[in-house]
Amino acid sequence: MKQIKRIMGIDPWKITSNQIEKEDRRLQESLTSIGNGYMGMRGNFSETYSGDSHQGTYIAGVWFPDKTRVGWWKNGYPEYFGKAINALNFASVRVFIDDKEVDLAASHVTDFNLSLDMEKGVLTYTYVAYGVRVTAERFFSIAQQELAVFAFMFESLDGEIHQIRTASIIDANVRNEDSNYDEKFWTVKNLDNTATGSFIVTETIPNPFGVEQFTVAAKQSFAGDFTRVNQETRESSVLDVYEAKLVENAPLTFIKNVLVVTSRDIEPSNLTKVLSNLTLEISKKTYHEFYKEQEIAWKKRWEIADVQIDGSAEAQQGIRFNLFQLFSTYYGEDERLNIGPKGFTGEKYGGATYWDTEAYAVPLYLALSDEKVAKNLLKYRHNQLPQQGLKGALYPMVTFTGVECHNEWEITFEEIHRNGAMAYAIYNYSNYTGDETYLAHEGLEVLIEIARFWADRVHYSKRNDKYMIHGVTGPNEYENNINNNWYTNKLAAWVLTYTAESLAKYPRPDLIEGAETAHWSEIVDKMYYPEDEELGIFVQHDGYLDKDLTPVAQLDPKNLPLNQNWSWDRVLRSPYIKQADVLQGIYFFGNQFSLAEKQRNFDFYEPLTVHESSLSPSIHAILAAELGMEDKAVEMYERTARLDLDNYNNDTEDGLHITSMTGSWLSIVHGFAQMKTWDGQLSFAPFLPQAWTGYAFHINYRGRLLKISVGQEVKLELLSGQALNLEIYGEKIKLSNFVSVNLKK
Asked: Of the residues 414, 442, 477, 606, which is catalytic?
């Protein structure tokens, strides 16, 4: 177990700290990010901070196609690399006390405390400077998506009269950390000061790829005890200055309300008019009314989503943090959007959509939100059904619009297993909800094109009388350009089978003929799977067993993480596995393998896995739980639940691992509680970790709301919906209201 440098405190509902982590400020900023699905920002200070920082504000669906063409460009490379771009910095509020500016990196700031309240979605920090206590509070409203609120309270601590001045800024002079040669992505189209506050309108710079330019407009308005004394427009920013006198026992408040609208929803010519109308609407409400709306909206989400854990404050905080950040990033309101790996917390991975959504996020959203949310994730892919070179459809590895936006050949060309995850999500939705209307229509259109891709991508080996798939990268990205990745071959055959079975139920003669499905059947019957009879395992890919199979435990810890200490060629030559690969397939198709097969493969592959992908620990936790390996299951749960909070992979300063945050929920629900839905049969077989005294969660399932509580006994409650037939520890029961059974040890 790595040594944890924990910079934030442990609290069941809060992320706390009593100091500004100057050496780890970027990490602290990541951990205190907030958002509302429409927009969000890292935990940057509004006030001046002269130390190292990564200022970042991001808006859902707003991106830029950055240039990628290089001298070694080859046919099939994407024309550009899509990236999430840093948007307007609208959080800035410079604070002056008696004409001395507060710099939160300077020594005059004391008594600092920071708290992210996950129950309400509110970030608060306090400090003392020049005899004044300042309390700053902010939230991104989930009741009104265009609104971000920044509130400040000032109290005199030394009995003196203080002159307080605030300079509130919206600044378009922003850059991405990963921009080329400090390139800027925004131009200012309009800016002005008005009686109700200042606004600015920006547009992304032109691009040569035919991708739409985005226009983003923001306006700031104010409330509280201060008086405006000045307004200014500058080349790329607007400024409103306010002042007030602070006396003892008479605190002052300053409220900055920011409204943000974009050309994704509104014609650019109407943006300023819409901002004016919204400003008028919000002027009718007080800060406390906005705050109450935020509290009520988050309470509604938590009523179903919360997982309650007794006996471990670390475990409790971890899963709530992950759920909070997931729902701050995406809650399914807009079918044009998907879940970026970093959400609103950073720029790494381009902020685009990966296969993580279909493989890891769909199960969680199926259980914790309305069915339409998961369906919107499926529609996102149907709306972007691609055609890229081969027959059928290969979905991009990274995308904003359905066009491949990734510029590494071993990913773009070879990590084709992502195509199977799209089909698996359709199966998962149909099997979980019992609703096959999507499958019968849009779903089959997607499945047929994916199946055609696989049928074209395989090749027939005459020597072996088998179909094979060469030149691929599996989920384990520490192996590139290998042949016959077991997981990829398994997934391809399954897609062909599932699509043919679905066509038998819902014929589509308008889309496909019988001869084509007959060829699919031949491929399935003759698909090659690398296996080793002596070891009794599925081999990750051809030649894998020829490597030096030294377990991770025998490495010098100084080598870890490998991706930060070894050259890439050394990583590729090693046997070490970045994330679940064979085990990913065993998780997806768990009803096809015996416990003995699962045990042999787990025992072989887990000791060789470095878990340097954030997606890895949860799959291992789920399988370990099923195999009765409690210690390993708990270890892997802790790693996925606190991956960012404890910075396991030493990379959280770049932003949080949003899509993998589903793993903590999957580990408990699919792992510890062993919830399964094979063939539409809901079942549970829970265990209780020794260090815990209990846990409980809710799930939506086929029009019902259930609560499952695990302590010294297992309680199943039907909170709404009709009676449901299910299994508990293999015993069939009919749940009509409440059932309690003894915990199986």
From this structure: 477
Closest CA to 394 of 468, 457, 327: 457
Q: Is the four-CA dihedral 366, 368, 372, 375 of positive or negative sign?
A: negative
Q: Within 13 Å and on the Cβ side, how many CA atoms surround 262?
A: 18
Reported as half-sphere exposure (CB side, CA atoms, 13 A), residue 7 has a value of 22
pLDDT at 336 exceeding the cut of 90? no
In this structure, which amino acid lies at residue 47?
E
* Angle ∠(667,335,145) on CA atoms, nearest 5: 90
Is 152 in a helix, a strand, or coil? strand
Rounded to whole angstroms, how far apart are CA atoms 170 and 199?
A: 8
Q: Which two tokens stand for residue 588?
A: 């997806």
Total number of residues shown for the chain: 745
Residues 723, 725, 731: CA angle, nearest 5 degrees: 135
Is residue 389 predicted with pLDDT exceeding 60?
no
Query: Taking a C-beta distance cutoff of 8 angstroms, is the pair 438, 383 a contact?
Result: no
C-alpha distances (whole Å) from 43 to each of 88, 276, 346, 648 are 15, 28, 11, 20
Q: Check residue 451 and report its DSSP letter.
A: H
Cα–Cα nearest to 30, from 451, 459, 651: 651
Q: What is the pLDDT of residues 56-98, one digit of tens each?
A: 999 999 999 887 666 666 777 777 888 889 999 999 999 999 9
Residue 83, H or E segment:
strand 80-84
pLDDT of residue 650 exceeding 80, the answer is yes
| Catalytic residue list contains 293 | no
pLDDT tens track for 129-160: 999 999 999 999 999 999 999 999 999 999 99
CA distances from 123 to 32, 152, 158, 594 (A): 7, 12, 27, 48
- Whole-number Å distance between alpha carbons of 316 and 322: 10
